[in-house]
Amino acid sequence: MIGSSVVLRTRSWIVLCLGMLTAGSPAALAADCPGHPDALGTSRTLVVDPREHPLIGTMQYRETLPLKDHEVVLTFDDGPIPKYSNQVLKILADECIKATFFIVGNQAKANPEGVRKLVAAGHTVGTHSMDHPLTFDRMPIEKAEAEINGGIEWTAAAMTDPSQLAPFFRIPGLMRAEGLENHLISRGLQVWSADFPADDWRHVSSDRVYQLAIQRLEAKGKGILLLHDIQARTVAALPKIIRDLKARGYRIVHVVPATAERPATPTTQVEWLMHPPTETTPIARWPRVPHFVFTQTRTLPAPALADLNVQGEHQSLLPRRSKGQIDLASTLPVPGRDLFAIPEGSVEVLMSTTSSRRAATRLAMAAERPHPAKDKAAQGRGAKGKTAKLHGRRTAQAAPAAADHAAQPVDIVPKSTAAKSAAANGAASKGVPPRPTRVASLKKRA
Ligand SMILES: [Zn+2]
Description:
- The chain is α/β, with parallel strands linked by helices.
- 37% of the residues lie in helices and 16% in strands.
- The protein has two domains: 25-272, Alpha-Beta Barrel (TIM Barrel), CATH 3.20.20.370; 356-446, no CATH class.
- The protein has 14 helices and 15 strands.
- The longest helix has 23 residues, at 346-368.
- Belongs to the polysaccharide deacetylase family.
């Protein structure tokens, strides 16, 4: 008993405090809604520039209206149909709520008075095509354009002042398509999807409409609610939805388009996101990694012997590869493109080095041949016409001897092994034990 009285007292304090905290806004709103002191009212007007944010509504787009937590925008499609639209108008008027209506051209044509009533009540009026086809996503753009134009023309024609028509468009059935959106954007029309529907076009009860509206709003905490002012279940559900919005502390925002005299409400980019990232909210994505594409092929074949620019008679000079090595080298990773970039000026050096090495190789091979006539022929093939005297000899102590001659050892010719080929890299002059080797040296003539 003691415990329950404490709880009751605590609750009454909370209710009192909440009442004091919220007393300011309902009092102000009640003053704006004569005869309806308990009205939900409209808390503020949001002025938007369609060109800055052309696609809104998180049901389909990244951005939505820059609403604060617990702010709601009511939208009604497909009207006006007098029987239901007039009842919706009355309910909204009794709550001093301003909403946005998306008019079907044929309805405006049949009931222009209904459009004028919406404008007179201060609601925002956009359009929703001429005939409400549910094929906008696959319709030729010329046909879509005719549908869009018909809706705009007949709605504007119904108005006393056509400039009251907002450049807001909702695609029938939300059947979006990129080409269609681009067309609408190019005309300065803002494409309104929604943040949540209440399924009031389905065969569900009005109670279900009310439940879905509140459940889906509570899940997001704010947003654009999509309703239809041509449905009996919507008319039945609307008072209950509005009462519950008020009880849960939601506020209604009225959206109007920016004009020359009425600049857009200042906003930041992140306010147009349903849940702007904050330092305390982890982002569910890794940073984007750049996608590099250098080639269509993932691996390249290992070069063949012929690709190495080696003459057939020199194949025996190459170190032998074991089977394991061959398998490892059967494919190679694709190198980056910049690996092949050779700085300007270095090409000449590379070419001259290669050609002088080739010339030296030829001379060395010629030296090994016993026929003197071939020696002469080899001399005649000197690189770039330069003459060179060949000193070929067979000796057991070749490397030191060649060094004594102050001539460069140009090609050390091992018989077959890899160990001998290492001598070509200068090992011979670094104290490698002498062994029988064929050496050719070049001595330039003065
Ligand atoms: Zn519709």
